[in-house]
Design a protein that fits this description.
about 25% strand; about 35% helix; Rossmann fold; 5-stranded parallel sheet; single chain; binds adenosine-5'-triphosphate; alpha/beta; 4-stranded antiparallel sheet
Length: about 230
């Protein structure tokens, strides 16, 4: 489902004399259906950069990224958007929403975009908000004023509302208490059970151990490394 081959990435710092910073070379990984793979490696080793390339936010310098058979590296923006709509879910730590949109609509939106009827999409959104312990009185309000943990849970609900075949999770349990962390781990386990391929960054080792089948150390993709 996720196949990365020979991926390289450098950043060019245009505001610092065009300095080129090589971050990654010859990166390779595979995540199959029903599998959760955790990215590990010291701070600055390139975990987020790899995740952003796989989500299509950063362009790789070279190499191949196939998501459910679709070549992402070099794909047209329209193809990337279609992949994100149907196949590739992404849960980041931070919620980005338009102001004044009610929480339940924020969560239901990925389903609405796919043409799911409003009542069905809202019911699924409400179920996730309930499971993630977002109080019902907040469902009709915009999440822009919610606490950090509440916003993260809204983001998780939005990420899990459609049964994406491929999921990218960037610190999905970062600011959650133990009770909500367990809910998220259950959602991940359920996604694996229905066959989703999941790639995650989890700084919380207990969470990582609970859901990851394998770990990939991105330090092994540091440019100039001989191993
Ligand atoms: N947009 C960018 N422009 C320039 N350099 C960048 C950019 N994004 C990341 N980098 C650099 O790439 C390297 C890898 O960063 P990245 O955020 O991927 O590491 P990480 O392993 O996710 O770190 P952490 O665990 O601290 O979040 C760092 O040296 C960082 O400074």
């Amino acid at each position: 489902m996720i196949d990365v081959h020979n991926l390289s990435k450098s950043f060019t710092l245009h505001n610092q004399g065009g300095a080129v910073i090589p971050v990654m070379a010859s990166a390779a990984l595979h995540v199959g259906p029903g599998e959760c793979v955790g990215l590990i490696g010291q701070s600055g080793s390139g975990k987020s950069t790899l995740m952003r390339m796989i989500h299509g936010n950063y362009l790789p310098g070279a190499g191949s990224i196939r998501i459910a058979g679709v070549q992402l590296a070099g794909a047209q923006p329209r193809a990337v958007m279609a992949l994100r709509r149907n196949t590739l879910g992404y849960v980041s730590q931070f919620l980005r929403v338009l102001p004044r949109v009610p929480t339940v609509d924020v969560v239901a939106e990925p389903l609405r975009i796919l043409g799911v009827p409003r009542d069905v999409a809202q019911a699924r959104a409400e179920c996730l908000l309930w499971r993630l312990n977002i109080p019902r009185r907040l469902w009709s309000l915009s999440p822009t004023t919610f606490s950090g943990g509440e916003q993260q849970r809204v983001n998780i609900a939005r990420g899990f509302v459609h049964p994406f075949p491929v999921l990218l999770l960037d610190e999905p349990t970062a600011s959650l208490d133990a009770r909500n962390r367990d809910v998220v781990l259950t959602l991940i386990a359920e996604a694996k059970a229905r066959g989703a391929a999941i790639l995650g960054i989890f700084h919380d080792e207990a969470a990582r151990d609970a859901v990851c089948d394998r770990l990939v150390d991105v330090t092994g993709f540091t440019p100039g490394r001989t191993s």
